[in-house]
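Predict the structure of N-acetyllactosaminide beta-C6-N-acetylglucosaminyl-transferase.
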Amino acid sequence: MPLFDWRVKLDYTRPATRLAGTRESRLSARPLGAAARPRSNPKEEAADGQRYLLSPPSPPPRAVEKPGALGTSQSQPPLETRMSSFPRARLSRRASREAERGRARSGEAASRGRKGKKASLGVLGAAAQRKVWWAECIVWASGEGGPAAAAAEPPGFRSVSYSGLARPRETMRSGKPPYIFAVFLLSGLSALLLLLLGQPPPVSKQTPPPRLPGLPRLRESDFLRRACGALVQGRKPFVWGNHLRTSFDRAASCENYVTGSHYVTRPVSAEEAAFPLAYIFTLHKELATFERLFRAIYAPHNVYCIHVDEKAPTRYKQDVEKVLECFPNAFLVSKAEPVVYAGISRLQADVNCMKDLLRSTTRWKYVLNMCGQDFPLKTNKEIVQHLKKFKGKNITPGILPPPSITLRTKFVYKENIGKQASYMRRTAILKSPPPHNLTIYFGSAYIALTRPFVEFLFNDSRAIDLLKWSRDTYSPDEHFWVTLNRIPGVPGAMPNATWEGNLRAVKWSDAEKDHGGCHGHYVRSICIYGTGDLPWLLKSKNLFANKFELKTYPPTVECLELKLRERALNESEIPVEPSWYF
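Done. Here is the predicted structure for N-acetyllactosaminide beta-C6-N-acetylglucosaminyl-transferase.
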């Protein structure tokens, strides 16, 4: 029994119906590669219809002579009879819609007297000049098969032979492969699945997953650790989302928040416990970034004063306060300032926190100031060891001001606080000379001060008068600390110091020859570190780096935090709590 394979092309000039179970189909079969020409000759049309068309049931069908393999003829039932006897052959609804559109186009072409365009279909489905739909119907008919039957088929048809039994089937070939839709669908489902898997349940509702004996437990940092190793080596791995998130939005209590966010809750060495530090944070945005910074630098024996810009949204202030309620050694400043960039308010925020820190019961050794976009490069133990090397001296990097900087203290500046923006405005008024004939220096706003020096700030007239004189200068925090620390006899003073101290790693845009360029982007000439800056940051000898943006470059912050936590726990002198691991 031979297996014949016809490919039926929809005739756009006739109404099209479904093949199955009906003899009213208006379909035409044409050999592959044949031109779609208009039928103007009645005799030719009739002959062609006898050979290839599926005709209506009346007049009664007659047998069609099909040439044999050796020039003989072989009688076969009409094509309509053979096709209608197999109800499994179907035309899809999509094909029917294409047929309707095709008939409209063909009608317009016929009215203009155009000739039909040629359509061809190669072995690999080459594109035709106009879009056509083919229905491949595999029909099982009686008769002799083999190579002879295949050779006897009309030109352009392809014979299909099977070994064993075969079932009638239908496939549709179109200009838009169905697998493209499947690829888009699977991509969307994969992205949705990753987002859902990246949202862990609340800490209070989390239950430990069942563990098989002998298998290690996977942690949040397992994948991140491999990705960070690749980034340090200069490769570009795929990193999805944040892996070391805190549990601020999921914790039901402070205990759950501290545990779920992996805070270290005990001093890990006797050296650190005997050398407590005080920290000042000045914030105005990005709670998640502050949480990462606070967690990375937190130790239960230190003390922390947090200054939130008075202009910050109320919700942000409430969220920061909610975090600090879980830590008895952290508090909000008693008097907040509306901070203006390069204004006295930035310096006053640090001074207000220092006054509150002196009232703390913790007898801290040094106070260090931070902003919300800083991040540590060293562990707490490494910071303590670094500060001990200065033997009670203050660290205030700075030098005598260059000519371009002297304008900051030569004219009077005013703070302009607006709803949209705040800035410093220079006036034409000349500034009075510094009090007590002090020499004004220029340096960094980030410092490390001893406790005796902070007490000196609120008791010595030179410090009090210099603070008043600096209120209408530009960026006073960059000259106030270094000027006082250069006065001989001041507690912890370093009169001959320059830029030493290694407090901050900063990439300035005008010093790319020194640091190799910024792999993130610049804001006010300062680099916002990208992932490509990780090798440079990890090799730095500085205690902290500035600036970071968790939302823009999350792997930069997360890789640094992971490295710091691993180093800190590896040096621990006490048993490590399981919740301290990421």
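The radius of gyration is 41 Å.
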